[in-house]
Amino acid sequence: MFITLLRQWVTTPFANQRLFLNFTRQDFFAQFTGSIGGFLWLFITPLAHILIYSFVFAYIFQVRAPEEFGETRFVIFMMMGYLPWFAFAEAISKSPSLLLDKAPLITKVMFPVQIIPVAGTVVPYLTHVIGFVLLLVYLALQGYFNLLWLWLPLIFLLQFLFTMGLVAILSALCVFLRDLQQLVALMVTIWFFLTPIIYPISLVQSPSVQQLFLLNPMHSFVNLYREIVLAGQMPSVHLLIIVPVALLTYLLGGWLFMRIRLAFGDVL
Predict the structure, then answer these.
(1) For 29-40, what is each residue's pLDDT tens digit?
(2) How far is residue 188's CA from residue 261's CA, in Å, rounded to a whole number?
(3) How do residues 130-176 score in pLDDT, each as one tens digit?
(4) Separation in Å, CA 169 to CA 52, 80, 82, 106, 112
(5) How far, CA to CA in Å, does 171 sit from each of 95, 115, 253, 265?
(6) Which residues contact 42 (CB under 8 A, 6 or more apart)?
(7) Phi/psi at 181 (nearest 5 deg)?
(8) Would residue 111 be called left, alpha or beta, if left means φ above 0 and alpha means ψ between -120 and 50 degrees?
(9) 188-229 confidence digits (pLDDT tens)
(10) How open is the CA angle 216-114-263, to the nearest 5 degrees?
(11) CB 248 within 8 A of CB 155
(12) Which residues contact 192 (CB under 8 A, 6 or more apart)?
């Protein structure tokens, strides 16, 4: 039973490719329906956040990138963590409403409902990967490119799987516990400030407290992006953390979703 549910979870996007693509396309373009700015909002929103945080922390508080990153400007240091985080945060923030918004479809049409959290994760990552790729192109032209960049697709994939597992858990539980919608929004805000994105970990004076940050998988993801791209180094400790965490979260989240999906129709 356990293996069967996992197999269905993993193979659903491939076994139902046409349906998956339709869901993804519909959700992607729905973001811009009736919007004057259209695709420009893909760049305006993260750019506005980056400018605000850069002004506050780099100009007012005079925060600088750690010494190991050389002459890297703080705005570049921050963007390397913020852009991947933005995709993660948007997917998590939208997860509580994924199934609730499609309640009429779930209760009236027979289809593999597990496609919804998969598409709900793909769309934010597809949306924000554009800005991340543009940043990498800019940094490559500035001379930052090194062979360790070949690890970036794997790290990004692991972050995607980690996110998908959480989205599956949250979207499924919110069908039964509607209060989770407010808790998830609060959780994302707290998680953001507990992840060294708008500040370097070196500002945390206590070494024991710095070690506690290793319990936060997003810290490891952010640190990997920065070390690989900006410092040309591969911190193996973070890689050893994200591989099992991402895979376990993806599989356990998918199993939980598949295990309780048959009860969605009764509650929705």
Answers:
(1) 777 666 665 567
(2) 25
(3) 888 888 988 899 899 999 999 999 999 999 999 999 999 999 999 99
(4) 32, 27, 24, 17, 16
(5) 5, 12, 10, 14
(6) 127, 128, 130, 131
(7) -60, -45
(8) beta
(9) 999 999 999 988 888 888 889 899 999 999 999 999 999 999
(10) 100
(11) no
(12) 85, 89
CB of 9 closer than 8 Å to CB of 114: yes
Residue matched to tokens 């995709």: 87
Q: What is the DSSP string of 142-173?
A: TT---GGGGGHHHHHHHHHHHHHHHHHHHHHH
Give me the phi and psi of 177, to 5 degrees please.
-125, 90
The pTM of the full predicted model, rounded to 2 decimals, is 0.92
Q: Which residues span the domain enclosing 93?
A: 2-267
Cβ burial of 37 (10 Å; 0-12, 13-18, 19+) is: exposed
Question: Structural domain tally of the chain?
Answer: 1
Sign of the Cα torsion 168, 173, 174, 176 reads positive
What helix, strand, coil percent values describe the chain, rounded to 5?
A: 80, 0, 20
Q: Which residue in 23, 253, 201 sits closest to 122, CA to CA?
A: 23
Which amino acid is residue 266, in one-letter code? D
Per DSSP, the three-state class of 114 is coil
Residue type, 156: F
Measure the CA–CA gap between 224 and 160, rounded to whole angstroms.
15
Of residues 31, 57, 52, the one with CA closest to residue 42: 31
What is the identity of the amino acid at 35?
S
